[in-house]
Amino acid sequence: MKNLARILVVSGGLAIAALSGGAMAATECNGAMSGTIVGGIVVNAGAPCVLGGANVSGGVQVTNGGILIVCASVINGSVIANGAAGILLGPEEIACPGNVINGGVEISNTGPGVFPPPAPSISIENSVVSGAVHLSGNKGPIVVARNTIAGGLFCKNNTSDLDDEGNPSVITGRVTCQFE
C-alpha cells in the first residue's frame, strides 16, 4: 500500500511538471545581454535593453516606457511591445546586424521616440520574421526595410506611414501598410 501511495505521489508530481511545460520565469533586461537566455525577456521602463548576439527562448515583452535594441540575435518566440518608448530591431543606422525572430512582432502605442532625429521610434530592419508583423497606434517614424517577413505586414492607426529606405522587404502574405 505504501508503494502504491509513493507511485501515485511521484506520478502526480510528474504530471504537474509535464503540464506546466517546464515554464521558467522571464529574465528582466535593463542593460546589455548576450548568450543563451531561457524563459524569455521582459523589458520595463528604465535602462534600455540591448541584446547583442543573444539566443532567447520564450520571446520578448516590452512594457510601457521600455526601450529595446536587438542586433545579431535569435528570438525563439514573439516580440510584443505595448507603450514602449522605442523598439529597434536590426537598425542599419548603427551598423546592427539583422535578427531571426521565430515568431511574430506586435508593436502598439509606441513612440513618439527617444532616439535623436532622424532615428525612427520603431525600426525593423535586416531581419527574418517567421510570423506576421502588426503595427498599431504608434506615434513617430517607423522603418520596415530589408526583411523577410513570412506572415504578412499589418498597420492600423499609426501617425506616420512606413519608410522602407529604398530597400523593400520580401513579405509573404497580406500587406495593409502604406509606405512613404
Question: Gist?
Answer:
With 180 residues, the chain is mainly beta.
Architecture overview:
- It is a single chain.
- With 180 residues, this protein is mainly beta.
- Helix content is 10%, strand content 39%.
- Strands 2, 4, 6, 7, 9, 10, 12, 13, 15, 16, 18 and 19 form a twelve-stranded parallel sheet that branches.
- It is globular, with a radius of gyration of 19 Å.
Provide key terms for this protein.
180 residues; disordered N terminus; 10% helix; 12-stranded parallel beta sheet
User: Major sheet: size, sense and barrel closure?
Assistant: 12 strands, parallel
Strand content: 35-45%
Give the uncertain stretches in residue-range form. 1-22
Mean pLDDT comes to 87
- What is the overall shape? globular
Element order, helices and strands?
Answer: HEEEEEEEEEEEEEEEEEEE
The computed structural class is mainly beta
Instruction: List how many beta strands DSSP finds.
Output: 19
DSSP helix count? Answer: 1
Note the topology.
Layout: H1 2-19, E1 27-28, E2 32-38, E3 41-43, E4 49-57, E5 60-62, E6 67-71, E7 74-76, E8 79-82, E9 86-89, E10 100-101, E11 105-108, E12 122-125, E13 128-129, E14 133-136, E15 142-145, E16 148-149, E17 153-156, E18 162-163, E19 170-171
Parallel strand pairs: 1-3, 2-4, 3-5, 4-6, 4-7, 5-8, 6-9, 7-10, 8-11, 9-12, 10-13, 11-14, 12-15, 13-16, 14-17, 15-18, 16-19
